[in-house]
Amino acid sequence: MERTAQVVVMSHSKPFLCALWEGADTTLRIAFQFVRLGDGSNIQAWDVNSDLITEHDRRHALIRDYIDGAGPNSREVAQSLRPVLEAFMRVSFPTEYPPGTLLGPFRNVCEQRVGTPREILSQPDIDELRNLTEFANRYHHDTNPAYLTQRINDAELLDFARRTLAFAKR
């Protein structure tokens, strides 16, 4: 049986290339990228692992760092809470929380189903989601036109950051 010594794959699709990267033998793979240089381009090493990090991963890490005392940007942390909750809902409840769904209407559906065979969240979880959402909405552009100037209390943010990550582990 003949064996191929080398395969070169080029594509404009990062998701496709990242999927190949994840499936390849870690001892036999190497990645390069073409980078614009003036009117031409240059080939350089590509850190695929850093491109695999999603915005959700970045926000989650930002919140964890803040909780651990390493993250000084409290405004960015406050603005990250709602998207972390939304991403959690999309993964945990893909049928009930498809892309484009808002947390408020989702909570309403959850409340209507409490105690029924189609229950999504328990009443205590709905109450906690409401509290988390109301806090996070203070720092979200869609729900507060003054979100960029909203005052941040560090102790309150720390509490809600912890509660958000705890909620997103359920």
Provide the fold topology.
Blueprint: H1 14-23, E1 32-37, E2 40-45, H2 48-52, H3 55-67, H4 74-92, H5 103-113, H6 123-137, H7 154-167
Antiparallel strand pairs: 1-2
Task: Please give a structural write-up.
The protein is mainly alpha-helical. It has 2 domains: 14-52, no CATH class; 55-167. Helix content is 51%, strand content 7%. It contains 7 helices and 2 strands; from the N terminus they run αββαααααα. The chain has helices at 14-23, 48-52, 55-67, 74-92, 103-113, 123-137, 154-167; strands at 32-37, 40-45. The protein has a two-stranded antiparallel sheet with strand order 1-2. Strand 1 (32-37) and strand 2 form a beta hairpin. Helix 3 packs across helix 4 (74-92) and helix 6 (123-137) packs across helix 7 (154-167). The model has no long low-confidence stretch (mean pLDDT 90).
Task: Summarize the amount of helix as a percent range.
Answer: 40-55%
Distance between the termini: 50 Å
Rg estimate, integer Å: 21 Å
Number of domains: 2
Strand order of the largest sheet: 1-2
Largest sheet report: 2 strands, antiparallel
- Helix and strand element order: HEEHHHHHH
- Which regions are unreliable across 5 or more consecutive residues at pLDDT < 50? none
Portion in beta strands: 5-15%
* Shape field: extended
For the secondary structure, the number of strands is 2
Give the number of helices. 7
**What's the mean pLDDT score?**
90
SSE-based structural type = mainly alpha
